[in-house]
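User: I'm new to structure prediction. If I give you an amino acid sequence, what do you actually give back? Let's try with this one:
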Amino acid sequence: MKLQVAMDVLTTEAALELAAQVAEFVDIIELGTPLIKAAGLSAVTAVKNAHPDKIVFADMKTMDAGELEADIAFKAGADLMTVLGTADDSTIAGAVKAAKAHNKGIVVDLIGVADKVTRAKEARALGAKFVEMHAGLDEQAKPGFDLNGLLRAGAEARVPFSVAGGVKLDTIAAVQQAGADVAVAGGAIYGAADPALAAKQLRAAIV
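Assistant: Good question. You get back a string of structure tokens that encode the predicted 3D arrangement of the chain. For your 207 residues, that looks like this:
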């Protein structure tokens, strides 16, 4: 299972600082949507230039103009970018077309999708490299939230998937046991007093 850091910082400088701290322990470096909106896609270019050996993930959350937005992200240096699962099939297909042209990949983010299992299978059939079983920060803040719904959906869908939303040291083993291809840790890393140590501990917990 790969480890992905989701960097929900707001400046290119902060992203480069965080990436430098954790790069040796992670496989995928994600520039979160707030970062891309605040700093622009030049942040993607900067991170890719600093870490050319890492998979750089642009969390675009594209909802329309899939081929165009994917093309922009890949030209900026992204290896993977996200399209929302709630988008029209044609949007996902357009993004996949751009990904094939650049030899890159599309991740379909299932945030806000009620039937994640069905949509995961559809997204994979449309050409997604994998799907993201994702609970956003707002959803995680609701009383009673836990990761188990995402894990069950991932296990049932039987397509390559990542898990994002509440991945931390005491849940990462369950993420792996559910069969996830990628565990996405955000706050557990960037919110830690020592992000490098947090990333190292998460890496060590993957067997």
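You can read the tokens as a compact description of the fold. Here is one thing that stands out. The mean pLDDT is 97.
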